[in-house]
């Protein structure tokens, strides 16, 4: 039994080698056709390299300096908390790590960037209009009544957009966020963020990269310092209110004193309004002094809570350009054409043998 198994294995191996030789012989017999297919594929690869537009990449890097903790302001913040005010403290980790990079790819930030104004060909347009021009969408919209009048003016009110405008912006967002936009940190220990924007239009890549960084920076700073700014506004309103009350009390004291000028010392009851206004003046003066001190503390806290975004490198023309080279087109075009040509010949021979 063992010898028969060995013989069967030898037969199977011989058959396999024989089949392989048969296929190799068949393919060698068709070498002219395969060679022609490879040459044709290489020619198509060269043609593709000539037609394919270069891709420009704009790169911007910036560093975040976000002072955390309250430090020496702990006592002052505790005092403010005792009178019902929240002067902030730590802004929280809402934009820490991956959250910040995802903010750059959010639809809100990308759409705000697309509606930013730029000067292109001597005209002030939005980046969305520039994107439409780059992709030649408007030519395809000429015969469509719903699309031929669609426009995206710079700094337009996003809330008033139609459903069609929302859909177009959605398509732009999907394409940009998935194929053109890359955001990340080279090292998690270093708070330097890099933004890469790729486009077939050099100016669009540069403008979009710079405006995206600006929009995200504005949103980041506004959000991180929102509580401290709100508290400072409340304190300033209270200061204005107490100041008005104090001015009124001072005027009231003056009026009461005028009314009691040369008053008989025996008629002290008529001096009561003046005494009451004096109490109001003293009370409002004390409150105003405390509020002014809290306003100064709020200003210090606001400066502390406002992060610093420092641009390190901006995209500078000419941008880095990546082309699909002729050599690459010849090699890849010839390889894939030859590979699929051989597959086609093998399938053709199998089908003929079956028929």
Automatic annotation (TrEMBL):
Localization per record: Cell membrane
Membrane topology: Multi-pass membrane protein
Keyword Transferase included in the entry's annotation: no
Record key words, sorted: Cell membrane, Membrane, Transmembrane, Transmembrane helix
InterPro entries: Bact_polysacc_biosynth/exp, LPS_length_determ_N
Main location group: membrane
TM ranges: 33-51, 330-351
Pfam families from the UniProt entry: Wzz
Identification of the protein by name: Lipopolysaccharide biosynthesis protein
């Amino acid at each position: 039994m063992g010898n028969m198994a060995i013989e069967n294995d030898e037969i199977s191996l011989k058959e396999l080698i024989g089949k392989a030789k048969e296929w190799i012989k068949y393919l060698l017999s068709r070498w002219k056709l395969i060679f022609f297919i490879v040459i044709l594929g290489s020619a198509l690869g060269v043609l593709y390299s000539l037609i394919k537009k270069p891709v420009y990449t704009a790169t911007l890097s910036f560093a975040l300096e976000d002072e955390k903790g309250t430090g020496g302001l702990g006592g002052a913040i505790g005092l403010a908390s005792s009178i019902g005010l929240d002067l902030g403290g730590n802004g929280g980790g809402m934009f820490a790590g991956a959250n910040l990079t995802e903010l750059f790819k959010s639809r809100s930030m990308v759409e705000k960037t697309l509606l930013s104004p730029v000067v292109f060909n001597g005209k002030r347009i939005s980046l969305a209009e520039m994107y439409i021009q780059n992709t030649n969408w408007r030519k395809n919209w000429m015969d469509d009544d719903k699309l031929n009048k669609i426009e995206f003016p710079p700094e337009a009110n996003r809330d008033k957009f139609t459903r069609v405008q929302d859909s177009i912006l959605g398509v732009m967002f999907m394409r940009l966020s998935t194929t053109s936009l890359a955001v990340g940190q080279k090292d998690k220990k270093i708070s330097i963020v890099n933004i890469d924007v790729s486009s077939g239009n050099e100016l669009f890549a540069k403008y979009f990269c710079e405006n995206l960084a600006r929009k995200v920076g504005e949103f980041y700073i506004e959000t991180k310092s929102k509580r401290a700014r709100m508290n400072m506004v409340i304190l300033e309103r209270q200061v204005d209110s107490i100041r008005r009350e104090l001015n009124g009390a001072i005027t009231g004291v003056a009026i009461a004193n005028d009314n009691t000028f040369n008053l008989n010392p025996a008629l002290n009851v008529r001096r009561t309004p003046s005494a009451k206004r004096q109490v109001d003046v003293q009370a409002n003066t004390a409150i105003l002094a405390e509020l002014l001190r809290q306003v100064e503390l709020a200003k210090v806290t606001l400066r502390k809570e406002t992060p610093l975004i420092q641009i390190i490198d901006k995209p500078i023309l000419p941008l880095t350009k990546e082309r699909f080279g002729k050599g690459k087109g010849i090699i890849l075009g010839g390889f894939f054409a030859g590979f699929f040509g051989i597959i086609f010949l093998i399938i053709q021979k199998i089908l003929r043998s079956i028929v």
